[in-house]
Sequence to fold (558 residues):
Amino acid sequence: MINRFSFCGAVIAVATVFASMATNAIACTNFIVGKNASADGSVMVTYADDSHTRYGELHHSPARTYSPGDKRQVIDWGTNEPKGWIPQVIRTYNVVGNMNENQVVIGETTWTGHSELADTTGINILDYGSLIYIALERAKTAREAIIIMTELAETYGYASTGETFSIADKNEAWMMEMIGKGGEKGALWIAVRIPDNAITAHANEPRIRKVNLKDKKNVMYAKDLIPFARKHGYFNGKDEDFSFADAFDGHAYAKRRSCDARVWSFLRRFASPEEDAAWFEWVTGNSDEPMPMWIVPNHKVTLQELQERMRDHYEDTPFAMTDDPGAGPFNAPVRFRPMKYEVDGKKYTHERPTATMQTAWSFITQSRSDLPDPIGGVIWFGTDDANTTVYMPFYCSMTEAPLQVREGEGSMTEFSMDSNFWMNNWVANQAYAGYSKMIPDIRKVQNALESSYIASRPEVEKKMMEMYREWDIDGVRKAATKEGAAIAKEATDAYRNLAQYLLVKFLDGNIKKQDADGNFITNPYGRLVRPDEAPYNEEYLKNIVEHSGERFAVKQKQ
Fold:
């Protein structure tokens, strides 16, 4: 039984529910790496589910067999509101997080688009989250997932605003963009295959512009896409010049800076200085030449690099937020909300990096064609802020989610000592107030756990392969489930210990002295020696003087 402390049992007001829909929507970041662009030959997708209201838990839907005539209920992912029923298929696949047993992965980011294309009639019932998880239950490949999602949207209606999806399997990676038709049932969409040797990203802005619409192998789109855009005045050029991104959304400077800046910060790490500089001009509004949809990276991308990129705060760029007064006395790279603010009638904004405090959960997936599906598909899953989380490897063949990340075993209003989400939050929220002091201790634990998980994969997968060769598929599933449970417990226990350690070490703004083994130093009689004092940084002190004048000045003797 999970150990919980309930903070609030109040029923959430309807107004709060609708507010959370908007909060959940404009928040996420995805990276995509083709199989020939990755160091190990895997297709990789990352996704950060950034939300002020969503709890960090690992979705699991077991494989099932149904009878003809059975129905599947559609429940809105953002509000939990029942929306209707659709026919169920005879067989569904095992789904772990956002990856199914066939190594199919789906992520998303929301970009709203033209407000008149949002359905206000209720005729459409499938939101983007429902499309994702229904497709994962039913798809064998990424292409099949696209077909399933678009046919469902056409039949039952798409109920969300503009959306970009990452859809991948062990052989291919795709980007699909979709928006509704207002009061009409259906959806407008386009899907483009990412070249195997390329990488890309999307972050709350549409990214698909001019593509070869005749390339049926690598491009799919709704039959009425361009006719609809012409009819409603969103596009009036030649078909071959059609740009989905420009037809259905604007790209004002504010959006580029808060959204496409995350794409730039990712791509620049794998590009030349000249490309970096050119793309920065787009992000800062000094050029209207968009960033490319994808690039061929200047080196093969590793799993560890994607972990680092998920923790990005615009380090080593003009957007880094560690040196201004807002960083506080200990150089915090993040800001509390709201992002936008006004001083003396002038508008300002804080930067919105990939790593953010409000993340519910995030992942990095590996879909690998050189291994059988039960072993080839791994979702490296973490809860809370990607900067401080531990990415835990869970195989797509797991038949049960670990207790510490299981759906329904915790919530945003119940603190639990056994919850991975709450232990990560306990660590992270201490660090926000004392970042430069605490982050080295956090990195030690984080790096040790992640390094051990990465290093142990060959041996773990060797044993799984031995079972697989003996056709002991059930043994593989049991091994994956058992190891996943052990890893989730280990990571959660480690962060519970870390949270308590941080509280003790940095109590009341001090830093307790430690010996070479990490023990807190006491005198020969067991009394703690005087701790060190954590000095404020110079920028913070200058800011105090600037705003307080001579109030704190020490008078000198004449």
The two ends are 70 Å apart (CA to CA). Residues 5-25 have pLDDT under 50 and may be disordered. The chain is about 30% helix and 20% strand.
